[in-house]
Design a protein that fits this description.
Number of strands of chain B: 2
Number of domains of chain A: 1
Number of domains of chain B: 1
Helix content of chain A: 25-40%
Order of helices and strands of chain B: HHHHHEHHHHEHHHH
Largest interface: A-B, 43 and 30 residues
Strand content of chain B: under 5%
Order of helices and strands of chain A: EEEHEEHEHHHHEHEHEEHH
Strand content of chain A: 15-25%
Shape of chain B: globular
CATH class of chain A: Alpha Beta
Bound molecules: adenosine-5'-triphosphate, magnesium ion
CATH architecture of chain A: 3-Layer(aba) Sandwich
Distance between the termini of chain B: 52 Å
CATH superfamily of chain A: P-loop containing nucleotide triphosphate hydrolases
Oligomer: heterodimer
Strand order of the largest sheet of chain B: 1-2
Radius of gyration of chain B: 19 Å
Structural class of chain A: alpha/beta
Number of strands of chain A: 10
Structural class of chain B: mainly alpha
Largest sheet of chain A: 6 strands, mixed
CATH topology of chain A: Rossmann fold
Strand order of the largest sheet of chain A: 6-7-8-3-9-10
Number of helices of chain B: 13
Helix content of chain B: over 70%
Distance between the termini of chain A: 34 Å
Chain lengths: 248, 297
């Protein structure tokens, strides 16, 4: 579903990413791990169009996406979340959700003025879907609060729920568990498992080994921008280079 | 006295329309436009020039709005993809270039002598105080602008603008073409400034480049910030407070034993003081929402 080949990216002469090969199959949950500052987020930024690679090819669903605008990539169904969670604090929780659906009649000025009924009908449908998702994520009681009033963990939940509102084919999650307490972490893990059972594809960055082992069916290990190991959780766990990278 | 009040309200209402355009750009989208007055000038000059060539007022006003909107859109193309400050610099430059163009291209604009002799809406049909009629007309236009903008702001389109204002990575990550929305906001805000320009021309009966000094842009900024960025009602309130105060003191000149430069300076000082006091006690502006200013991610 997603394949990344020969991606290179330097910042001021220092190589941040040099990923020779990375692949995600449809319906899979692939983990990306590695110590701090090895280029995991940069890799995500490149895949999702927020950064341009110096070199390399990215194919999503049979289409070359390197160099495309981030919004185009999202519209193709590849939706990301951010490491520093980006709930829109000055919008309400439900407004955050309603932002996400892709084709909204009311996103065109003329439709707002000239076809208010159609716009409203679609808004009602989307609001219903937002309610359902918020309920699943346990945020329904907060729906009319400003998102700025949520706790760090709730903001992460909101961000994932919002990404789902966009009906992605594949989700890129950048450390979805950081700053989240163990109870909420379990909750997020549970939703992810459910989503996977429904056929969602995931690429997840995480630097907690235990969580990623539990979650993924395939893992890439990054060190200094390069993929130093890959394989199923069992293989990676026992790989010496990985142990070296992690233990120093 | 009543004529005087009508004039004050008329000026305030015209600048309220003008400020609504800026509030769309800054208040809702976070765009920094320091050359808003240029679009007012484009609206005014286009309407007047076309009318002097025999074009009826309605199409002339629409053309003024369209040209102002188009210029806004063209300025947006090279700047909106860059950091926010580029738009600020380019718009401020554009407004000054345009003013010098109006001053120097005498064949078109009669330069500093300005233009007059154009018609005004329903001029022949109104008996009695024309300004009173014009005030009613401007208030209707203001109300229509307000309602249409409120409708937009509460729509999915407005939601995208607000998301851009807070953090444009989020709408981009959800498939929204951020550049396109910013440009739409800039075009619409500029078209509204153009509309205000046409009505300014109707009120003044005589326009020249001095009506479009850079300061006018900053008055609109004061109106928006005073009333509450991102709040259309607040912007209208801010514009009425500011511009009735301005034109009020201008008309009161005859009664106060100070020279006009002294009054001018006092006026600015007073506005500055007012702004400081409001920002100290209500940083979100008179009608702004606190949550939209203070809550941090
Ligand atoms: N915009 C940028 N300009 C310059 N250097 C950058 C930029 N973005 C990232 N880097 C550098 O690239 C390297 C990789 O950073 P990146 O954020 O991708 O790491 P990471 O693996 O996500 O780390 P963490 O686990 O801390 O999130 C770091 O050395 C970082 O300082
Ligand atoms: Mg990171």
């Amino acid at each position: 579903m997603l394949s990344v080949k020969g991606i290179e990216k330097s910042f001021g002469g220092i190589k941040a990413v040099d990923a020779s090969f990375l692949e995600v199959k449809e319906g899979g949950t692939v983990g990306v791990i590695g110590p701090n500052g090895v280029g995991k987020t940069t890799l995500f930024n490149i895949i999702s169009g927020f950064d341009k690679p110096d070199n390399g090819a990215i194919v999503f669903n049979g289409e070359n996406i390197e160099g495309k605008m981030s919004s185009e990539i999202a519209r193709l169904g590849l939706v990301r979340t951010f490491q520093l969670s980006k709930a829109l604090t000055k919008l309400t929780v439900v407004e955050n959700m309603m932002l996400a659906p892709q084709v909204q009649q009311g996103e065109r000025i003329w439709n707002v003025w000239l076809r208010p009924r159609e716009v409203k009908r679609q808004e009602d449908e989307n609001r219903e879907r937002a309610r359902t998702l918020l309920e699943i994520f346990g945020l329904l009681s907060m729906k009319d609060e400003y998102a700025g009033a949520l706790s760090g963990g709730q903001k992460r939940l909101l961000e994932i729920a919002r990404a789902l509102m966009a009906e992605p084919k594949m989700l890129l999650l950048d450390e979805p568990f950081s700053g989240v307490n163990p109870t909420l972490t379990k909750k997020i893990l549970k939703y992810m498992t459910e989503l996977r059972d429904e056929g969602m594809t995931f690429l997840v960055i995480e630097h907690d080994m235990h969580i990623i082992m539990q979650l993924s069916d395939f893992i890439y290990v990054l060190n200094k921008g390069e993929v130093i190991a890959s394989g199923e959780p069992e293989e990676v766990r026992n790989n010496e280079r990985v142990l070296d990278a992690y233990l120093g | 006295m009543i004529e005087y009040i009508i004039t004050v309200l008329l000026i305030a209402a015209i600048y309220a329309i003008f400020s609504l355009g800026l509030n769309l750009e800054w208040g809702f989208t976070g765009l920094i436009n320091f050359g808003h007055v240029a679009f007012m000038a484009i609206g005014a000059y286009t309407t007047v020039l076309l009318n002097l060539k025999g074009v009826p007022l309605l199409p002339a006003v629409i053309a003024g709005m369209a040209l102002a909107g188009l210029c806004g859109g063209l300025l947006g193309i090279p700047t909106l993809k860059l950091r926010a400050d580029y738009l600020a610099i380019v718009t401020i430059g554009f407004a000054e270039i345009l003013r010098f163009f109006l001053l120097n291209e005498g064949w078109l604009t009669r330069g500093p002598m300005g233009l007059h002799g154009y018609s005004r809406p329903f001029e022949d049909m109104i008996q009695g105080d024309y300004n009173f009629f014009l005030l009613l007309l401007v208030l209707i236009v203001l109300a229509v602008c307000y309602l249409m903008l409120e409708k937009l702001i509460k729509s999915p389109w407005g939601r995208v603008l607000k998301s851009i204002r807070e953090d444009e990575d989020v709408p981009a990550s959800l498939g929204k073409n951020v550049f396109s929305y910013k440009n739409q906001s800039l075009m619409l805000g500029s078209a509204i400034a153009g509309l205000a320009g046409s009505f300014l021309a109707f009120y003044l009966q005589y326009i020249n480049p001095r009506n479009f000094m850079p300061m006018e842009t900053f008055y609109a900024w004061i109106a928006v910030v005073l009333g509450g960025s991102g709040n259309n009602k607040g912007t209208i309130l801010g514009a009425f407070i500011l511009f009735s105060f301005f034109s009020g003191t201008r008309f009161a000149q005859g009664y106060i034993p100070l020279s006009s430069t002294q009054i001018g300076a006092l006026r600015i000082m007073f506005i500055g003081l007012l702004l400081i006091v409001v920002m100290m006690f209500k940083p979100e502006g008179l009608l702004g929402k606190k949550e939209e200013l203070t809550l941090m991610g």
